[in-house]
Amino acid sequence: MSGRRAPFGQMRALDGDRGRLAVLSRSSQMSRKTTSTGIRERQFAGSQPMEFAMLRKCLSVVSAAFWIAIAEAPVQAQGPFVPPKTILHTFYDGNTNDLLTAGLGKSGLGNPTPPRPTNAQHPTADELRTSAIYNNYRALVDPTKEGGYGVLYGPNVGIDGVPTESEGKIAGDEYIAFAHDPGGRKQVTMMVQVPAHFDPARACIITAPSSGSRGIYGAIATGEWGLKRGCAVAYTDKGTGTGAHDLQINTVNLIRGERASAADAGDNSNFTAALTGAERTAFNAATPNRFAFKHAHSQKNPEKDWGENVLESIRFAFHILEQKYGPQINKQSTIVIASSVSNGGGASLRALEADQERLIDGLAVAEPNVTPARRRRFSILQDGRPPFTAHGRPLIDYTTLVNVYQACANMAAENAGAPLNPGNGAARCLSLSAKGLLTATTLAEQASEAQRIINDYGILPEQNLVQPGYWTLNVPQAISVTYANAYGRFSVTDNLCAFSFSVPVPVPGIPALDPEAAATIFAWSGGIPPMTPSPLAPPTSRLALINNAAPLGPVESGISTADQNLDGALCLRSLAAGEPGNPGRRWQVERVARGVAQVGASGDLHRVPAIIVNGRNDAIIAPNHASRAYFGLNSIVEGKRSQLHYYEVTNAQHLDALNALPAYAKAYIPLHHYFNQALDLMYDHLRNGRALPPSQLVRTRPRGEATRPISADNVPRISDAPPPGDRITFGAAQVRIPN
User: Fold this and answer.
1) Model pLDDT for residues 678-691, shown as the tens digit of each residue
2) Which end of the chain has fewer beta carbons closer than 10 Å to its terminal beta carbon, N or C?
3) Any catalytic annotation for residue 333?
């Protein structure tokens, strides 16, 4: 990293909510003061852009000429790092407020009653931050003591894994900015948190890109590990974070969550749909009170840039650290670990693949959403089962299939005891049969056939009892709609497959979102309606999927027809599978396929030490199509030089937050515990040279009863010397997984 320094621009100070918020742009003198509330404003001189030798990644162009004309290459760093135009900086004293818990502490984050703004229709930016941290932290973990919160993980658990009486608040500096973007349309949010106990002599940076489609605080529970360790944490919302454009009244989110008119927000908007005034007026007349969301409707296919977004957040972190500590902070003196979970884990993995600057020293991710390049030169063999060769399918492919068949599969006898099973899929089974998509004649046989179709597509039987609950929570429905729109770069006005986002109502007639929910959307929205940051958050006044083609008029999709809008699900499936059914949708199919082609992973990690952790029961990111397939691809690409280690954990599903429910608590353990172990292992490897354990199956033991506290017996450590029967290996063109 360059140690060169130069004026940083002009800066102004704005009133904060608990003190003063420093707004930095390029050039100013250093000054510092502490407010009575403990939040310290800092204004300081910056450095010239840090120089990086960036190589342009090349993407193959494989579509029609008209698509090439509108396609956009991934974001590429052109020459030196360009600091953001404006940086918001706040110091938190670790008492009244802090980096990790927003002042709530371990007790506040664990409290099932969420914090509320003083005036819910006019929350302050600081109140929105507090609520966002509360909701997003609890979205990634089981917040009950019996499940492990405060015992295995949580703000009060030390870096040695031992729980303390501390509330776990962490003092330090927080910097938020939009990534430099000359066009001003991507609006990717970055944030760097630097704990007060950061030690320049043992400098480290951990990445925490948001999971799912969440906002900038979406991965706060994964950033926790770095904050405790004294590392700077580099966050990014990956261009998908909570950007909600209320098209009816034309309001948008600003970077810290406040609502403003789109006209007033301008380039400060987190996301504004690309519509002219006339287009918005016409859309509102035809479909009133609808929302456009950043992930679905930015028309940028943000996923193609996730890796570069993570790399840019690392550059931003180095820039901030150089400002604070001088040239002693550089790449050679700083350990950088790319991390996070789900979409965030996939983003970090893609960042390592694209890391031509060698910014990243190691990788530790859990349940990553990654689409490996489709190489069928190997099979996946789980002991006792036939080899599986059709692996590595994209998320939108297998999710849209689940979206078609799961409601019927919920009715299968073997799924009767599944948690949160709605058990209302009989009409879906009948409609599937009527359309020739099932051959069985009785309801019981149709449900079993639907389940078999899902499993034959590479969905593990271990996922079957998890899927019904995810269906109830609208997981496959939400992913199918959002990702089809995103990959195809469709506008909200395209009305793709007749879906839109608005208020859930039981009868036709879509009202406006109530003022309180609208004002606080930054805090409770997960960026992908109808899912909230936490799957256990109350649905009141939230946004839902609307079926605009419902027979009696627009209404919530799941209740719009007796078969739960099978036609909408089939439309989305046709776009993902490349089988349009209606020839008029061929152009839509091609656009989606082009978007999917842009997110493929190469499998080349440049021989950098890497860890992937995945739950065997993951019912969102299917192991056969993501982690297992990527492990096999990397084994082919890098061969014996590979330093990727894969740890698969039994009795672990994707949404740890659901383990707070008794039915899930009985059967599943917290994967988050193993994510933290992976970071421990990687840090020890990079700092002290300790060998990483070999790839293995980690055999856990469910608690059996929700009231029984979790213990070390339930979650054995990743073993340095697993028995041969527990090792995951690659050889003879097979990924071998123990049963």
Assistant:
1) 999 999 999 999 99
2) C
3) no
